[in-house]
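Q: What does the predicted 3D structure of ABC transporter permease look like?
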Amino acid sequence: MRSYFSDFPKTALQASYWLFVIYLLLPLALMMAISFKDANFVAFPIDKWTLKWYAQVLQDKQFLEACLYSIFIAVMTTLFATIIGVWIALLISAEGIMARSVIFALACLPAVVPGLINAISLRIFIRVLDIPTGTGAIILGHTVHAVPFVVIMVLTRLRSMPNNLVDAARDLGADSFVAFMRVTLPYLVPALAGGMVFCVLTSIDDFVRTFFLGGYQTTLPMLIFAKVQGGMSPEINAMATLVLIVTAAIGLYAEHFTRRSRM
């Protein structure tokens, strides 16, 4: 009896965890199942199964163009956010820097400000600077939102880095730039990989900022939103399933790469 009560908190915690996993995965499983339904409407039960929606999506020129456009924006966002995020993290971790907490708070502010407020403020900002809506404005908005993820991950990695590594490189004649390229940067690779994956996924998924800053060319979330306005269909579920599979694969590979880099 005593053993039963002593194991109860652990059992309850495990049960709560698996209930939460089911809560997360069940809607995704239902969405994926509907994408195989041989009908033009979304409903259960599924009488006939088909792959025609996937064939239709993969032949949809508008969908493919939206994917390429979203990937381009995500790549550019990741590039700029990584450079800016690493620079801010190095600035915060440097010796003799005043107001580190203020710099860190300002760098992480875009991650805690509501997306709608952030999008409205960015729209006002680009109008003040006379920047046209479109690709450049979208990349700017996505970069502002992605920088905090890079800062947090790189800063966490920097705090675990032994100081004697850089000191040893400088004792051997390396200047600050060479020490950074040959010592600090390789040490930051796991954090950079994780931060870059966050940047890619948040950029591809970002709808609110794209809606306020975008031009005539549609990204993938904008395309799915436009199709949803015409009513749900298994075609939309097929699009969402393909995006889910690709993003899950990227996340799993990044996790595997990060673990290997830390060994």
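A (community wiki): The structure tokens above were generated from the sequence. The chain has a mean pLDDT of 82. The longest helix spans residues 2-34.
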